[in-house]
Recover the amino acids of this structure.
């Protein structure tokens, strides 16, 4: 760490004050010279004071070019000179030695140690010279009888100088040591306040202080850093950040500012240019980071969420960072890998989403979600054979909220298990009312989220719920989507088998929309498939879809599976599906979802 030259700082402060009093010193010196001329003091003292006034005047004229050190040395010489003259005038007097000591005190306080020791040596030598002079010229300066006093005073002077140098420099060393420690503490506090300790990049506080011009703020969020920490350990995650910082520093120039603003986030400010140039720079930067990144023997690839906002001169940098973070929130919650720009519409979406999160928390805590039921009919008899439970939500502040909006948000909030348990308990509580309305033979289908199905204890929860509500398990249908199965085939298969042992039926929803749906017919112990609405919408509009539906239904029949077509809205669709042998129909053509 760079340490300040405190000696020079002291000299600079002394010089600042000294320059202000130089005119006053000139006046005092010349005024005393005039007073001596009209007094009983020897006239050469008047000449001496006049000469001192001239020296001060010269120093005042040249104060801007003359060094502070030279000014102090000249000032020290003046009382020494007066002291010498006082010796020569009055023999052995205290005035002369006092003035010499004053010179040494000034030297020790304001000059470096080497110079001040040199001045003290000169003072001692001068004292000896004066002593010799007094014995060479005894008529003018009769001090022969004062020999003992001279010797005593000489050794006292030496002792004084020794004590002066020892004590003052000990005090100065102590003060400087404490000042240095304080300086280190202040520097450390500054470092903690304005710089990230791991990467040594500036932090949020320093970023705010540094960005004073318009430009673009880019946020890089490490998408997989938490996963890296979990798999390899935090020390490897730290290495990832450090290595990324090295690459960013290689990219850095005067047109950029780089900061680490949180654990997983780095922020870069780009000096204002066109949006097209900025986007090119971002693309080059991200490509460079991903291509050049390498960490020992670890096979780690960098993945980012990216967002940016434009920073203008009339906007607060904090607000610009907040906008970029809003865009980042949107990118993360929607798993967007592309660069997301902040705009007012996006902010409105995010703020509504944040409001919805709060209201969902409230709704879950206060049982405000409702369950509507949509019947499924037998294709041949048109009788209701089952109903599907569908969640609905009407909030006091937001009004009616579509399931397409709140279901994905519940998943993002990791509330799917709480929500799923609420829906299951609500449906099981409605069993008696459903039986009265639709018939005691009607089966009830419940959609189960992927997270809920593969969570520990799901089958136990269903079993306990069936028992506690005293309902027939063979009337319960669990609807699953292909998303549940992908990557969890073994676990899902085990859970399905456990549910089947309870007597619960399993339906594979949105069948045909996934890339591996046919594989699940052979792999999973399911009872029913639901043909996705996207196929139903294309009936008699696309010959290939007609052929595909015919094949799917025949294949399902071969596996002895119940077949339900959802989203049927026209008699043309109904007649086509009936002709193919579809077992059940669900859609607005016959029934819409409704509350009990």
């Amino acid at each position: 760490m760079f340490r300040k030259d405190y000696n020079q700082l002291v000299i600079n402060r002394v010089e600042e004050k000294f320059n202000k009093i130089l005119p006053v010193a000139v006046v005092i010196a010349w005024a005393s010279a005039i007073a001596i001329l009209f007094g009983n003091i020897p006239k050469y003292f008047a000449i001496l004071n006049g000469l001192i006034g001239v020296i001060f005047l010269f120093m005042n004229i040249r104060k801007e070019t003359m060094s502070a050190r030279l000014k102090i040395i000249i000032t020290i010489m003046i009382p020494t000179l007066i002291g010498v003259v006082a010796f020569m005038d009055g023999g052995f007097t205290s005035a002369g030695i006092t003035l010499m000591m004053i010179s040494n005190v000034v030297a020790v306080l304001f000059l470096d140690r080497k110079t001040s020791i040199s001045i003290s040596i000169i003072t001692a030598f001068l004292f000896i010279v004066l002593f010799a002079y007094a014995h060479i010229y005894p008529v003018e300066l009769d001090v022969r009888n004062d020999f003992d006093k001279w010797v005593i005073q000489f050794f006292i002077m030496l002792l004084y100088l020794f004590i002066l140098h020892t004590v003052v420099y000990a005090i100065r060393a102590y003060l400087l040591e404490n000042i240095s420690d304080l300086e280190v503490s202040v520097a450390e506090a500054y470092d903690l306040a304005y710089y990230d300790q791991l990467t040594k990049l500036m932090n949020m506080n320093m970023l705010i202080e540094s960005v004073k011009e318009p430009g673009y703020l880019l946020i890089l969020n490490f998408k997989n850093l938490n996963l890296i920490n979990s798999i390899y350990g935090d020390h490897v995650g730290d290495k990832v950040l450090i290595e990324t910082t090295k690459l960013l520093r290689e990219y850095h120039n005067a047109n950029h500012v780089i900061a680490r603003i949180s654990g997983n986030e780095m922020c870069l400010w780009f000096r204002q240019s066109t949006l097209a140039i900025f986007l090119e720079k971002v693309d080059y930067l991200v490509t460079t980071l991903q291509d050049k990144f390498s960490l020992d023997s670890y096979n780690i690839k960098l993945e980012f969420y990216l967002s940016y906002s434009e920073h203008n001169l009339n906007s607060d940098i904090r607000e610009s960072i907040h906008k970029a973070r809003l865009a980042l929130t949107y990118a993360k919650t929607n798993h967007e890998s592309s660069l997301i720009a902040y705009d007012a519409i996006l902010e409105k979406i995010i703020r509504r989403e944040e409001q919805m999160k709060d209201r969902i928390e409230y709704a879950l805590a206060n049982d405000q979600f409702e369950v509507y039921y949509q019947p499924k009919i037998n294709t041949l008899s048109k009788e209701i054979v089952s109903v599907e439970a569908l969640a609905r939500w009407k909030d006091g502040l937001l009004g009616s909220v579509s399931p397409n909006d709140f279901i994905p948000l519940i998943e993002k909030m990791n509330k799917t298990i709480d929500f799923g348990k609420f829906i299951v308990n609500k449906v099981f509580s409605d069993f008696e009312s459903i039986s009265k309305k639709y018939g005691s033979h009607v089966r009830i289908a419940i959609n189960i989220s992927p997270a809920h199905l593969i969570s520990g204890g799901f089958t136990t929860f269903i079993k306990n719920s069936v028992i506690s509500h005293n309902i027939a398990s063979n009337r319960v249908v669990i609807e699953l989507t292909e998303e549940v199965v992908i990557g969890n085939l073994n676990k899902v298969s085990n859970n399905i088998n456990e549910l089947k042992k309870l007597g619960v039926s399993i339906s594979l929803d949105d069948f045909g929309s996934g890339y591996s749906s046919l594989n699940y017919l052979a792999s999973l112990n399911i009872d029913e498939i639901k043909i996705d609405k996207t196929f139903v919408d294309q009936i008699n509009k696309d010959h290939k879809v007609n052929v595909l539906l015919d094949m799917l239904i025949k294949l399902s029949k071969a596996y002895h599976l119940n077949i339900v077509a959802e989203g049927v809205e026209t008699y043309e669709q109904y007649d086509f599906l009936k002709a193919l042998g579809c077992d059940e129909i669900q859609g607005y053509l016959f029934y819409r979802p409704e509350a009990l």
